[in-house]
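Figure S4 source data
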Amino acid sequence: MRNIVITGVAGLIGSRMADWIAVNHSEYNIIGIDDLSGGYIENVNPNVEFHQVDCKSAELKEIFAKYKPEIVYHFAAYAAEGLSPFIRNFNYQNNLLSTSNIINECIRHGVRRLVFTSSMAVYGNGTPPFDEQDTPAPIDPYGIAKYACEMDIQVAGEQHSLDWCIIRPHNVYGIKQNIWDTYRNVLGIWMTQYLNDEPMSIFGDGEQKRAFSFVDDCLEPLWKAATDERASKKIINLGSSVYHSINEANEILKRVIGNGETIYKEARHEVKNAHPTWQRSVELLDYKDNTSLEEGLTIMWNWAKEQPLRERFRWSEYELENGIYDFWKKPEIVANA
């Protein structure tokens, strides 16, 4: 049987991609890898042969040697962009070192194509809409790590003939997202805050613009990223062509819920407007913007209401506390401020 490896298979994109492949391409055996640090075993499709493994570990070699996958989707990452300046070591190990390990195994076992999900964070403070031809200029360690991964993958293509497709998704959301992490996934954070009888928090004035992308609209294009010749050795923005301010997104969610309050907190170090061009995803991956933000949030909210009230994740210790925002400070830091 033909094999596909999906890293981050317990997270949003990985789990939904596995669901889609299981339904649409049963000729493939799906090998799922996840260390469950940010995803949940309940998200993993029952047709997936699951391995609880850290991509940095030596066990990765054994998995590739056993299954010799044709296609590898590398979705595993910790995408807390705003937090990354305060967890630099973890950020680089989790994103850059893990990816280098994946690249080694793809080269060693002749993988037909590696699909890597990078990030809008590589663009930094450019002039939106961000285009794939723009020179990346990330402003935080997360974006730096993702850009470094992109460059390493391209070098592997030049030196070792590794075929690849780099996807830059933007603000993907939907069912199976981790809504319990207090540092990432703003739409999920708002849902969890509401379910815990808390106001929804916005950093700064809320006029930051983002293109929120419903995960299910991205799945068939992601398949083509791995299998279509048009996508070979291409960098492609993937996601919605419609952008909203954070304030607008918050109002849409409150309309979906039928209730909710909002509070404003100190501004973070972040890009003000981060919305991309989308033409290349249409031309190369046949992307279709099928789901409006209100429709997608309705689907996600109906799912979120049925989820267990999990404990929300907070870092017990940051690598660096200098300059950390008040809303992320630990109680003892606040007391001594």
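Figure S5 source data
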Amino acid sequence: IDRNQKSTDGESRLQNMIPFASQRANGQDLAVHLMNEQDNDQVELMDLRGSVSNDLSGAFAEWDFQAKSFTRCKKYLYSLSLNPDPSQGQLTHEQYMDYLGDVEKELGLEEQGRAVVRHVKHGREHYHAVYSRIDTEGKRAIPISFDKMKLMRLTRDFADRHNLDLPKGYDDKTERSQSSQQSLYDKVQ
């Protein structure tokens, strides 16, 4: 499905600044994908921290080694894709980094290794951020739970701060607050 094409009701299928995230392994496959210049007009490694290596493949290999050495964690990476709606204008680098700062605080990834890659494909800019989930000092994997719900809230807050529109249903605060305020007992009743 082309996420940029119009649906039958005229709405854009592009999910306006809705992040796509997953916990994953196979860092080398991800590094190849992220640095792929054939499928993208521009590829730029914007930031890399928490690694001795200064390239994506080396950093992901380090993080894989840490996962195997210190933990039994199989999905040692947290991958996040930020793909805003170009019809609302480009986000600045500072806005992307502002959003990532919010994500890091919410998910406990502030001190973790991170790679940020900027892609431009068919004139559409988007960012990818990949975090190591391995806390080398504590020798454990950072648990990430309810991340979809947390990212939805962060995205709503970000959209409010930057005057961005969200898809129908995503920003319906009345419906959301009513359903989230009900207890399980109330719902059963």
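The chain has six helices and seven strands. The helical segments are 27-34, 56-70, 93-107, 147-161, 173-181, 184-188.
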